[in-house]
Amino acid sequence: MSTKDIVSTDALNQVWGDSEFGNQPRRDVIAECLEHLTKGFHPPSTANAICRELGLTKEVPGPGPRVLTDLGFNFLIAFHQDEA
């Protein structure tokens, strides 16, 4: 399974809007944000909002960072498989 199977290019473009992350590819930004969350770090707010809008992360009750949804975990796994 590819990241494009999990999050379509159209959905990514729609949610992305005018966000700017330099020359870094959009799917790399998403994967980096998800990796930050798995390590307990707080990713940049714009990337975090994009992940939430795509359904890759969700809020948890109480203080603390967002957590990955099943879709988010699958995206991260597919991203690393695409790199191999």
- How far is the first residue's CA from the last residue's CA? 13 Å
> Compute the gyration radius: what is it?
12 Å
Structural class: mainly alpha
Q: Label the overall shape.
A: globular
User: Which spans of ≥5 residues are poorly predicted at pLDDT below 50?
Assistant: none
SS field, number of helical segments: 5
Strand order of the largest sheet: 1-2
Number of domains: 1
Description:
- By secondary structure, the chain is mostly helical.
- The chain has one domain.
- The chain has helices at 3-6, 9-16, 26-38, 45-53, 70-83, and strands spanning 57-58, 67-68.
- Strands 1-2 form a two-stranded antiparallel sheet.
- α3 (26-38) crosses α4 and α3 crosses α5 (70-83).
- The model has no long low-confidence stretch (mean pLDDT 89).
Short description:
Helix content is 57%, strand content 5%.
List keywords for this structure.
single chain; 84 residues; mainly alpha; two-stranded antiparallel ribbon; 5 helices
Helix and strand topology:
Layout: H1 3-6, H2 9-16, H3 26-38, H4 45-53, E1 57-58, E2 67-68, H5 70-83
Antiparallel strand pairs: 1-2
Helix pairs in contact: 3-4, 3-5
